[in-house]
Design goal:
heterodimer; A: mainly alpha; globular; B: alpha+beta; Thrombin, subunit H; 2 domains; 6-stranded antiparallel barrel; 6-stranded antiparallel beta barrel; 12 strands; about 40% helix
């Protein structure tokens, strides 16, 4: 009989909640739940940020890779496009957290910084794929709304995970 | 207990992406190797997908079929909101809509006689000239989902090959051209809107009769490219499909020229792409030499 310690049980539950929340955010995003273009926040990005920032020990490149693939598949973008952007986003935040600060500070600065970086990465990627310089204001507005939604999402997520802020 | 303290207290099981403080050399580089591995894998997938590989399309459709039931469920409230919005709009503007409809019916009735005459004449001339042309059947489809994201503009239809919908079929509404289907599995079809960055439609500009290509920009307004040198375009010119390439039948209304700059002309599509509920799919059936003499 398999006996799990409390810590292991807790880890499994948190991992399960992480998967559910990321999947839910991806589905909401990809199926344009709100029909509010360009004011449509990217829930995948802010949910991923939440997990990476507060529970980095549960996140891994494997999870981010498959999340990105799912985003591409459901959203109809080129396979690998969002995967690469999400990998860069995750790696950037993790690297910063480990090498610059382990404390939960500069949260907004990291969120703003990483959002700007992923916007640039996405535009560069589109330029590389389509051989066209592509810039439109819609993604910028969308990400701005993501940042506005972030505090609410964070509260909901802390409630969902059962942790104190 | 704060999160920072918790992190420090649980260091023995903490897995960090770049593992700065670890004992063995292998683990020190494990996450870094994983990052490099996944980044290279992603770039490879991107390269394969950009080369329009059939394998990538098949894989995408298989996963989409798996997630489609969940996605449909998640889309139910959204559809409800949209339906209520449309219904409220209809109720508020019912009287003015009725007047417009009465006027439209009157106009159509007046034109009916001429249309019948022209149809008869057209059929007779085709018979005499032995003209062979693709016949398009229209399939009305409700949308399963509508992905209008900043980097991609596509539709998902809840029917596929089993219902006779194939890839590369034009999508239209009463107003005009919407896009084309790009991938079809047994029960799902994904379509690309004319506003998507990957969309290219051969068009003809009326009244100048010049040919060009309509390219999506991922904004609400696609642009005209490859215009012949010296083409004069002005605001309000009508854009229709030219039929070149054989993918889109000639004459489908696409939009009007909204703005003309030194480099390009911006087009406003006739179809309301942000509030689609139903689309018509034109499925090809060639009434050609081979089928005539089968």
């Amino acid at each position: 009989m398999l006996i799990l310690s409390d810590l292991t049980k807790k880890n499994i539950i948190i991992k399960f909640k992480m998967m559910v929340s990321l999947l839910f955010a991806t589905l909401i995003d990809q199926y344009s739940f709100f029909h509010f273009l360009p004011f449509q926040p990217s829930f995948t990005i802010i949910t991923l940020f939440y997990w990476t920032f507060f529970f980095e020990y549960h996140m891994s490149f494997v999870v981010v890779f498959f999340l990105g693939l799912l985003t591409d598949i459901l959203g109809g973008s080129l396979l690998g496009e969002n995967t690469f952007v999400l990998l860069a986003f995750y790696a950037g935040i993790s690297f910063y957290r480990e090498y610059f600060t382990e404390r939960s500070q500069y949260e907004w600065a990291i969120l703003w910084g990483s959002t700007i970086v992923i916007l640039c990465v996405h535009f560069l990627l589109i330029w590389a794929i389509h051989k066209r310089i592509f810039f439109c204001i819609d993604p910028v507005i969308g990400h701005f709304f993501s940042l506005l939604f972030y505090p609410s999402l964070k509260r909901v997520m802390f409630w969902f995970v059962g942790e104190e802020e | 207990m704060s999160l920072d303290n918790k992190n420090n207290a649980s260091k023995f099981y903490v897995r960090k992406p770049f593992l700065k403080q670890v004992n063995s050399t292998f683990h020190a580089y494990k996450q870094l190797i994983l990052f490099v591995f996944f980044a290279i894998t992603t770039l490879f997938i991107l390269y394969v997908a950009a080369a329009n590989s059939m394998f990538a399309q098949k894989a995408r459709l298989i996963v989409m079929e798996i997630f489609h039931p969940i996605a449909r469920l998640s889309h139910v409230p959204s559809k409800g909101v949209q339906h209520t919005k449309v219904k409220a709009h209809d109720w508020i503007f019912a009287y003015s809509k009725l007047q417009t409809l009465k006027q439209t019916v009157k106009e159509y009735k007046e034109r009916e006689y001429y249309i019948q005459k022209l149809e008869h004449e057209n059929a007779e001339l085709r018979r005499l000239l032995n003209v062979t042309e693709a016949i398009h059947h229209v399939l009305k489809q409700s949308l399963s989902s509508h992905t209008q994201k900043t980097f991609v503009k596509s539709l998902l239809l809840g029917q596929g090959l089993n219902q006779g919908i194939m890839a590369q079929s034009p999508l239209v509404t009463q107003e005009g051209l919407v896009g084309r289907t790009v991938e079809s599995s047994d029960n799902l079809t994904r379509a690309l809107l004319i506003t998507d960055l990957n969309s290219r439609v051969p068009i003809i500009i009326k009244p100048s009769n010049k040919h060009a290509i309509l390219m999506g920009t991922n904004s609400d307004y696609p642009v005209l490219r490859y215009l012949p040198y010296g083409t004069e375009i002005k605001k309000g010119d009508i854009i229709r499909t030219s039929g070149s390439g054989g993918l889109f039948p000639a004459g489908i209304p696409v939009g009007t020229v909204e703005k003309v700059t030194a480099d390009e002309a911006v087009v406003k599509p006739f179809a309301k792409l942000d509030s689609l509920s139903f689309v018509n799919i034109l499925t090809h059936e060639l009434n050609t030499f081979s089928s005539k003499f089968r």
